Amino acid sequence: MKSKSFAFSNLRDPRRTLAGIACAWLALSGGTVFAETAAAPATSVAPAVASPQGYTVTLKQLGRNYPMTLRGVDSTDSVSFNVRADSIVTGAKLNLQYSYSPALLAELSQINVLINDEVAASLPLPKDKAGQPQQQTIEIPAHLITEFNRLSLQFIGHYTMSCEDPQHTSLWAKINNSTNLSLDISPLALPNDLSILPLPFFDRRDALPLNLPFVFAASPDNTTLEAAGALSSWFGALASYRGARFSSTFNQIPASGNAVVLLSGPGELQLDGVSLPAAKGPSINIMTNPNDPNGKLLLITGRDSAEVKRAATALVLGSQALSGNSVVIDSLAVVQPRKPYDAPNWLPTDRKVKLGELLPEQQFNVSGYNPGDIVVPLNFPPDLFTWRDDGAPLDLKYRYTPQEKSNNSSFIISFNEALIQSQSLPSEEKLDSSVLSSLKANNGNLEREANVRLPLNSVALQSRLQLRYMFDYIKQGECRDIIIDNMRGSIDPESTLDLTGYDHFIAMPNLGVFKDAGFPFTRMADLSETAVVLPDHPGIAELNAFLTVLGRFGQSTGYPAVGVQVIEADKVAGAADKDLLVFASGNNQPLLSLWADRLPAYDANGQQKFHLSDLPMRVRDWFSPDPEANLRKTKLAMAFSGGARSTYLTGFESPLKSGRSVVVIAGGGPDGLADATNALIGGEDYNQSVQGSLVVVRDKAVEALVADEDYYVGNLGTIKYLQWLMSRHVLWVLVLTGLGVVVLSGLAYLALRARANKRLGD
Length: 762
Fold this sequence. Notes:
- The chain is an alpha+beta fold.
- It folds into five domains: about 5-50 and about 190-335, 2-Layer Sandwich (Chitobiase, domain 2), CATH 3.30.379; about 55-185, Jelly Rolls (Sandwich), CATH 2.60.120.260; about 350-470 and about 485-500, Galactose-binding domain-like (Jelly Rolls), CATH 2.60.120; about 505-715, no CATH class; about 730-760.
- About 15% of the residues lie in helices and about 35% in strands.
- Strands 1-21-19-20-16-14-15 form a seven-stranded mixed β-sheet. A seven-stranded mixed β-sheet has the order 35-34-36-41-40-42-43. Strands 4, 5, 7, 10, 12 and 13 form a six-stranded antiparallel β-sheet that branches.
- Strand 2 and strand 3 form a beta hairpin.
- The longest helix has about 30 residues, at about 730-760.
- Pfam families: BcsB.
C-alpha cells in the first residue's frame, strides 16, 4: 500500500481540539454541548434554529432487498439506521406495510415496533384484516433515537388457545421492504475542526448517496483538477455502496450546506466576494459557510496549483492526523509506491486472504435454529484468468453446538446464491466417545473443516460467499414442544481464500468492467498509470463528469486517485504509456477527429457514424458464462446526417501504444455527459447495463451496440499462454501438427537413408 509521510504546522492552539464528536449528541437528551474555539475559552454551543428538515428511507435502502418474513411464535428481524452528526432528530414516523396469517388469534398475536430494543408501538392483528396488505403510520418518540440505531420488528403469533406447534406454518407475518422511515431533523452546528474529517462533508451514518459541490475561483488548470480528482475519489471511496455525485461551480459559494473549495494565489484570496487569508504554503482549512451557519467549507489552498495538489494529497492520505481549523503542510514524502492490483477493496492475489479481514469478527457468530446467512463480501479483481480452472480454494473452519438428537442439521456453503456444498452437522448421539470427550475442552463446541473450491468463471466482480447454519427442530409431541435458544454456530476468522494461483489476463475493450470496477484504469489504485484528457476549455459539465467518474473509481478501489494526470489533447503524446480516459461534449474534443478511424462512433460536420452488430437483436437479455459467446462483432457501418447528437461510451486500444486502453465518454451536449455518468452509476431506473465496446445512452435508456474484443491486457505464463492460444486456433494446430509430422517424417527418412548409405559404403 502506498503511504506518505508529512509534517504540518497547526495554526490553532493544539490544546484547543475537539473533545469528541459524541458530545454533540448530548443535545439529544437535553444536555449542553461544549466546543472550543481558537479565540475564546470553551463555551456552550446551542443547536442552530432552522425550519424542520427531514428525509425518508425505505427498508430496501437500509439493506433489505427482500421482504422480512417472520415465522413462529416469536420472531424478530432488524435493520440499522443512523443519524448524521450534524443533525438532531425532532420527530420520526414509520410507515409500516405488512400482512399476516388469517389463522392468527387476534387476542394473542401482535407486531411490536422496537427502536434500540425499546418498544415504540404494539400493533394488534385483527381477524377481519388478515391475509391482505395493511398499512400503519407509527409515531416514534424522538428520545428513543440516538446516533446509531436499530429498528426491529417483532412478531408474536398464536393460532390456538391450547397446545400449539411453535413452528406451525400458519404462524407468519411479512413486512414489505417498501416500508419507510421518515425522520424530522434540525441542524446542529459542528465545530470548525479538521479532526472530525470527513465530517460533515461525508458522514458514514448517512445511508443516502453523497452529493458534494466543488468550488473553483475560475476555470482550474490541470494541476488543480488533479487535486480535485484526488479529493472526489477519496470521498467516493468513503461513500462506498451509497454512491457519490459531484457538482462544480466557478466563484460561487453554495447558498446552503457544505462544499469543497480549491484556491491558489500569491496574495489574499477572494471567492464570491469573501476575503480569505493568504496561503502560507499548502494549506487545509475548515470554516463556516458564510451563506449558511450550519454549513462548512473545506478550503484547499496554496500559493500555486502545485501547492494545492500537495495539500489535497496530504488530506486524502493523512486526514486522521489533522486537528485544528487550519494546517500548513510542511513536507510530503512518498514512503512506499503502489503496486498493481493492491486496491484496498480488492481481494489480494499475492497471498491468502483471511475471512476475518473482510468482516468484523462478531458477524461470524450466529444463534437460533435458522439464523440466516453469514454473508462475506468478495470483491474480485476484474481480470482474473479463470480458463480451465477448478475454482479458488476455500479452507473453511467452523464450530457449532451439537444437538442431543437431530436428523437433518446442516451447514450450507453457497456462492452468489448457488449451492457449493452442504455438510451435515452430527448430533451427540452420532459422535464417537473421543469426540464427545473433546467437547468439554471446547466449551461444548465441535470444530470442523471444509475444503471447497469457488467457481470463478464469469463470476460477478462484487460477489457474496454465503454460509448458513440450519439446525433440525425435533418435535417432542403435543404440549411438549418448546423452542430453546441454545443453538450456536461460528465461522473461524482464520479461514482463508486463496487466489494466488491466478494470472491477470483479460480481453478488451470491455465497458462492463469499466463500469463495475473502473478497469483498466484502477489496475493501479492511485491511477498512476492513467491520464484524463479533457477538452481545451472544460466547462461545468465536463468538470462534473470528471469528478463523478473519479469518485466512482475511488468507490471501486477504496483509495484516492493521487497519481492521476490531467492533460489536453495536444499533450497526449507525452502520456503514451498510460491508459487514457477521454471526455468530450459536442465537438470540443480534438482527439475524436484525430482518432476517427479507430472510433466505432464518431460525430463531425453534422454527420454521425456508428458501427453496429447484432448485439441489440439478441432474443433474451442474458449473457453466457463463456465470454466468447457474448461477442457481437461489427457487421455494419452506418452514417447519417441530422438529428440530435448522440451520447455514447466506447473503448478501443490506444493508438499510441499497444496493450494500453482508451475509453471515451462523449456527450452530445452538456446534458449528455450527465446522462453518461448517471448510466455508469446505474440504478433501478436504467433499463440496461453498460457492456460491450460501444454503448449509446439516451436519457435513461442504455443500448449496447457492439461487443468487439480485439486486444488483451495482462500476462500469462509461457506454457499457459501457448495452451490458451492453441485452444483458440484448433484448425491451425491441426495444420501445424500435420506439417510437423511431415517434417519429422522427412528428417527421420533422411537420417535413416544416410545411415544406410554409410553402412553399405563400409
